[in-house]
Amino acid sequence: MESEYDSRPRGSRNGILNNTLYICFNQTARGTCTNVRTITRQEVEQRVLRAMKERLFAPSAFAEFCKAFTEEMNRLRREHRVQVAAAPREIATLNRRSDEILELLLKGFSDERWKDELRRIEERRAETQRPHHGSGGRAAAAGVAPAHGAGVPSENGDAGRRVGAG
Fold first, then answer.
1. Would you say the pTM of this structure is higher than 0.70?
2. In the chain, N or C: fewer CB atoms in 10 Å?
3. What is the pLDDT of residue 15?
């Protein structure tokens, strides 16, 4: 069954443009496709959740899935916030150790292990300073996942209804 968004030539794939919009990869990156249709990430997520709700799960199982998914997303976001908060301290520690090793090398204490450690410090510093990209959107900005089932269209099309509510 072909949807309005599935008119791309064989072999092409969709890609994310600006973290919220899906568009044909061949159209944007290569210019080899005339398909300019787009779909928002939110719309894709709503369609997937609606399909899961309607076709895969009993209502109670779907509500449980949404609850577990929300808890896991919140756990991952909390973990990420802890890592981001700890990054400046870790970078300061890496800088101090790097300075210590450089001082020793400048004083003539040449040891290959220190050079190896400096390389590892530089790799870790680069990794720690690398910007981390979240999933975007208001929920990620607030640091929590939306309430389970929030924004999932109900049988009457009300997208604001929560699964299991009223």
1. no
2. N
3. 65
| 3-state secondary structure (DSSP) of residue 73 | helix
First-last CA distance in the chain: 34
Q: Are 122 and 113 in contact (CB under 8 A)?
A: no
The SS3 call for residue 99 is: helix
Q: How many residues does the chain have?
A: 166
Which structure tokens are listed for 140? 């990620």
- Please name every residue paired with 19 in a beta bridge, in sequence order, or none if there are none: none
Phi, psi of 125 (to 5 degrees): -65, -45
Q: What is the pLDDT of residue 14?
A: 61
Q: Which long-range contacts (CB under 8 A, 24 or more apart) does 82-90 make?
A: 83/132, 84/132, 87/128, 87/129, 90/124, 90/128
Q: For the chain of 166 residues, list the mean pLDDT of each consecutive stretch of 10.
A: 45 64 79 84 88 80 87 95 91 93 87 87 88 44 42 42 36
CA dist 160 and 16 (Å) reads 25
Residue type at 81? R
CA atoms of 70 and 52, how far apart (whole Å): 15
Distance CA 89, CA 97 (A): 12
